[in-house]
Automatic annotation (TrEMBL), chain A:
Residue ranges constituting the Periplasmic binding protein domain according to the UniProt record: 31-290
PANTHER family recorded: D-ALLOSE-BINDING PERIPLASMIC PROTEIN-RELATED
Residues of the signal peptide: 1-24
Gene Ontology cellular-component annotations: cell envelope
Record lineage: Bacteria, Pseudomonadati, Pseudomonadota, Alphaproteobacteria, Hyphomicrobiales
Superkingdom classification of source: Bacteria
Alphabetized InterPro entries for the sequence: Peripla_BP_I (IPR028082), SBP_2_dom (IPR025997)
Protein known as: Ribose transport system substrate-binding protein
Record has Cell membrane as a keyword: no
Listed Pfam families: Peripla_BP_4
Species of the source: Chelatococcus composti
Protein family membership: Belongs to the bacterial solute-binding protein 2 family.
Cell location: Cell envelope
Principal subcellular localization: other
TrEMBL record, chain B:
Superkingdom of origin organism: Bacteria
Keywords on record: Cell inner membrane, Cell membrane, Membrane, Transmembrane, Transmembrane helix, Transport
Residue spans crossing the bilayer: 42-61, 68-85, 91-110, 117-137, 157-176, 207-229, 235-255, 262-281, 287-306
Family annotation (Pfam families): BPD_transp_2
Main location: membrane
Localization of this protein: Cell membrane
One GO cellular component, as annotated: plasma membrane
Annotated signal peptide: none
Protein name: Ribose transport system permease protein
Membrane-related topology note: Multi-pass membrane protein
Length: 337, 313
């Protein structure tokens, strides 16, 4: 009797050990993307990247399904209902780009309670049971000042173009820029406008403030607004300062033209829309039983003088420079490298 | 055989229930596991705030007005619920009572100055939105624990959301459709001249209905924020149109006085479940709004048909 019990226990143990070794079997798992908005080039590129990487993962039998769902109106209540529907549809993991960092917490908690892995990225959620792939927007701001300090050691006047007022991303990048200025006090922000991350809005806003400004040595931006700023300086007949770019195709094209003409130097920084594919792999790794920290920081995509041509060639007209993640690259991010 | 043909009046009253039943059958067909205690809990818990907002809208439509600020008002209540009501409960309660009083005042203003309610409430929607943004500039806050526990309460056998909706429909039905007071309130919308000539104060009925709308708006906001656990100034902007659609879908009409509380609650549930069905069917989000509109048009077309039958008799 005793021996039989012992045998049974050891068999069970062996089975358990065997199971824990046979990882990477997520072929029966289904992952859903819950997305709150699809109305700009960045989001379109994000969905395209998701489609490209996940359809290959499904074809390779890494996961059973990876469907994308987008709400029509960018409303938190609508997305909360969508997440509840996804729970009922039996998905094993839900990847979220959230309409609100807090208003989805109730639905996210319900998903967690139902045993579903929730990974949020870009627009993250604060519910503790979910994983977060956040962008270090603050560093994105302070890095711009670090770059300028290296290009212009004696400093100068800086014009700041901000994003959409009242959005947390704008607040964070701005805080990073303020921190950068206090670290490099030789720079002085002499003007600040809202460019709404859009070329035309930025051009109008910069053109409006330029006549009141002294000589500008550099323009710090948030992405999507660099080309508009360059056009405004040109129209006003003022010398072109160092304008930090934001990886958009029109910005990179303009930079390339200037570089060929007069050796213009700058840098470009933004978030790659392919971060959705990183979130996909993170969800897959969690389903796989890997130990993944709850808070991951995604590196932003930076383009410098020497890799400009390659980045421009890889970017579609009207699009944003992108990077799609492979499983190996995702593992490196998870490991904190 | 001909004795079995139901009267158009009955068909008309049954239409909201029939559309809901048809929707449930479709959901059962597409996603059988959704038709369960767990499934209904998930699909319908967000129907609870929408049902409250729909009844609030119904109160205003009863007196032949339209409230375009209900979505912003519900958002404001949600913001209060996630901030003041949690930190200083007394202040929170006072502010919510004050908000109901503001609603009553708007009713008085619309009546006394004979203003178009659409214009006044559209203006008020910006007022409420502004208050929400001042209170909660960026999304966040947290709700009192009792509120979150209350709305997530798990009743045995029948989900809490269904019980609340049924109780809501019943109470408003008895109050508005069966009581003597209800007849006067509806009459003030349907035929104000007659009600005034009979010696009733139109001002008082209008203030009553707007105050009731405020009360149901507060209930909507509190149940919503209890579910989401934190608020956002734009959290319920969609409720304005959803609530109007719910009232109309449930058999109400814009002429005042012709409303159906039971139908309105069923209408709110139909609209909520329609979203679930479309998502289960994997209809592209670009088409979902169109599909929701199509459901509305089909139900309204059916009703027009019933109305025509009614007239022929």
């Amino acid at each position: 009797m005793k021996i039989a019990k012992l045998l049974l226990a050891s068999a069970a143990l062996a089975g358990f050990l065997g199971a824990s070794q046979a990882v990477a079997d997520t072929s029966g798992k289904k992952i859903a993307l819950s997305n709150n908005y699809a109305g700009n080039s960045w989001r379109q590129a994000m969905l395209k990247s998701w489609e490209k990487v996940t359809s290959k993962a499904v074809a390779d039998k890494i996961v059973a399904a990876a469907d994308a769902f987008t709400t029509a109106e960018n409303q938190a209540t609508e997305q909360a209902a969508q997440i509840q529907n996804l729970i009922l549809q039996g998905y094993d993991a839900i990847v979220i780009n959230a309409a609100s960092p807090t208003a989805l917490n109730g639905a996210v908690k319900e998903a967690c309670d139902a045993g579903i892995v929730v990974v949020s990225f870009d627009g993250i959620v604060t519910e503790p049971c979910a994983w977060r792939i956040a962008v270090d927007f603050k560093k994105m701001g302070s890095d711009q000042l670090d770059y300028l300090a290296q290009r212009l050691p004696e400093g100068g006047n800086v014009l700041e173009i901000r994003g959409l007022a009242g959005v947390s991303v704008d607040e964070e990048i701005h805080a990073g820029i303020v921190a950068g200025v206090s670290k490099h006090p030789q720079f002085k922000i002499v003007g600040s406008v809202n460019g709404d991350w859009a070329q035309t809005v930025a051009q109008k806003a910069v053109a409006g403030i330029l006549p009141s400004l002294p000589e500008i040595a550099a323009v710090v931006t948030q992405g999507g607004d660099g080309y508009g700023a360059a056009e405004a300086f040109k129209a006003a007949g003022r010398p072109t300062p160092i304008i930090i770019m934001g990886n958009r195709h029109d910005e990179l094209t303009w930079w390339k033209e200037q570089k060929d003409k007069n050796g213009y130097e700058t840098m470009s920084v933004s978030i790659a829309p392919g971060v959705s594919t990183l979130a996909f792999w993170v969800a897959q790794q969690i389903l796989d039983g890997q130990d993944v920290p709850k808070d991951l920081v995604v590196p932003f995509l930076r383009i410098d003088q020497d890799n400009l041509e390659a980045a421009l060639a890889a970017t579609e007209p009207g699009g944003v420079a992108n990077k799609e993640y492979t499983l190996e690259e995702a593992k490196a991010v998870i490991a904190g490298k | 055989m001909s004795a079995f043909v139901p009267s158009p009046r009955l068909v008309r009253a049954a239409l909201p229930a029939l559309s809901l039943a048809a929707l449930l059958v479709a959901i059962w067909f597409v996603q059988p596991r959704a038709i369960s205690y767990f499934g209904f809990n998930l699909m319908l818990n967000l129907a609870m705030p929408i049902a409250f907002a729909t009844i609030a809208q119904l109160c205003v439509i009863t007196v032949n007005d339209l409230d375009l600020s209900i979505g912003a008002f519900v958002s404001f209540v949600a913001c209060v619920g996630a901030t003041w009501l949690n930190e200083t409960p007394l202040l929170g309660a006072v502010v919510l009572l004050g908000a109901v009083a503001v609603y009553a005042l708007i009713g008085a203003l619309i009546h006394l100055r004979n203003l178009p309610s659409i214009v006044v409430t559209l203006g008020m929607s910006f007022f409420w939105l502004g208050c929400s943004v001042l209170l909660l500039p960026s999304p966040g806050g947290s709700v009192p624990a009792w509120l979150a526990a209350l709305v997530k309460f798990r009743t045995p056998f029948v989900p809490f959301a269904i019980l609340v909706s049924a109780a809501l429909a019943l109470i408003v039905h008895v109050g508005l459709m069966r009581s003597a007071w209800g007849a006067i309130l509806r009459g003030a919308g349907g035929n104000p001249a007659a009600v005034a000539r009979a010696g009733w104060s139109l001002l008082r009925t209008k203030v009553t209905m707007f105050a009731l709308a405020g009360v149901f708006g507060v209930l909507s906001g509190l149940s919503l924020v209890g579910l989401t656990t934190s608020a956002d100034a734009n959290i319920a902007i969609r409720y304005t149109l959803l609530s109007i659609a719910g009232v109309i879908l449930g058999g109400g009409e814009f002429v005042g006085g012709r409303v159906s509380p039971v139908g309105a609650v069923l209408g709110a549930m139909t609209l909520t479940l329609a979203g679930s069905l479309l998502s289960f069917l994997r209809i592209s989000p670009d088409w979902q709004i169109g599909a929701q509109g199509a459901i509305l048009i089909v139900v309204l077309a059916l009703r027009a048909l019933v109305n025509r039958l009614e007239r022929r008799r």
